[in-house]
Amino acid sequence: MSALDAALVPAPASEAERRRGLNGLLLYTFFMVTGFAMLMPLVAVHFVDRLGLAAAAVGGALALRQVAQQGLALLGGLLADRYGARRMICLGVLLRALGFASLAYATELRWLLLAMLLAALGGAMFEAPYQASIAALTDERSRPRYYALSNWIGGAATTLGPLLGVALLRYDFALVCLGAAACFAANFVIAVRWLPKVPPPARPPPLRDGLQRVRRNRPFLVLVGLLMLYWFVAVQINLSLPLLAQRLTGDTDSVGIMFALSAGLTLALQYALVRWLQRWLSSAQMLVLGTALMALAIGAFALVGSFAAFLACVAAFAIGAVLTRPSQQTLIADLADPRALGTFLGVSSLSLAVGGGLGSLAGGGLIDLAAALRLPWLPWATFCAVGLLGAFGLAWATRGAARAPATSP
């Protein structure tokens, strides 16, 4: 860990401090995911079905947030390498809270875009420092287990978030926005109270040093590029799937049911299933398997004619996500250079920025196009093709890593 003293997160003074930091990050994860999950899935429902904006316009706003947040995450990582992780996390969660609170008063597209930009800037400031803090406080042996546990807690929060959001939506969308903002305000307190104090290094490394390390790491760059295809499919959970649920049932409660099922499966399977599969499969193999399952599941939505069939496809999609989340996090952290963790984790966010941004744009645009052309299968066939291409690409790129099972903690 000595190389980290001049990088993002210096080694804790004791095992107790390290555990305290990791426990604080788990609590932080719960509030971060709860706040996001209670609001973002309802943005499309509120602005499309209640305010009458075009699905493509709202998809564009969601894409703007995605691209701005993940695109600027590199800046957050660079600043964290130079000024310390906790400072950037504190700044980021306050900006995210302000952005979510401002959504409560957005009634036109321009105000929706402005609120999304503010929320994106906050996410850009805290995302890479948050991920790099986990990478710095764990090692190769403990990291897969911690990511599985963190994603299990994220699953619990994803179960709770939409249920809270739908319940508050019965009263007012503004309450949903303010409740989500409160979660990120709570994370400011958690960061100050539990995360390790990270003073700026005495001799900060040049900003271009980390970028040069990234440029020389070809396996890392290939993985980031291929994960763009994965995120193109994965982000449909926040746009295309809620809109389909709403159209199948005509009831916003169906969106909450969809997310409750997805998150419930994550909660039930994330930790135990990943730990069990690690006996036989490497992280790379689980990532390929999960991506292929998500692609096939989202393609099956083209055949859905009832809400029950819709939920069956959601379940398959969720199981695929259970396999991919900790696997991609572990692979990215293992390939990152510990001397520039913030920069590497910031660059890795470009996969979500580009892939997720294009996915949000395509999601809204393809749904509108499919309705105009009366081709309801068009969006789902497109998502399936992109996902399968990503799975084949990941299988090729990680074929060497796939020979050895993932390290069991």
UniProtKB/TrEMBL annotation:
Subcellular localization: Cell membrane
Residues covered by the Major facilitator superfamily (MFS) profile domain: 1-399
InterPro entries xrefs: MFS (IPR011701), MFS_dom (IPR020846), MFS_trans_sf (IPR036259), MFS_Transporters (IPR050171)
A matching Pfam family: MFS_1
Keywords: Cell membrane, Membrane, Transmembrane, Transmembrane helix, Transport
Keyword presence, Transit peptide: no
Gene3D superfamilies according to UniProt: MFS general substrate transporter like domains (1.20.1250.20)
Cross-referenced PROSITE patterns: MFS
Membrane topology: Multi-pass membrane protein
Annotated protein name in UniProt: MFS transporter
Organism: Lysobacter firmicutimachus
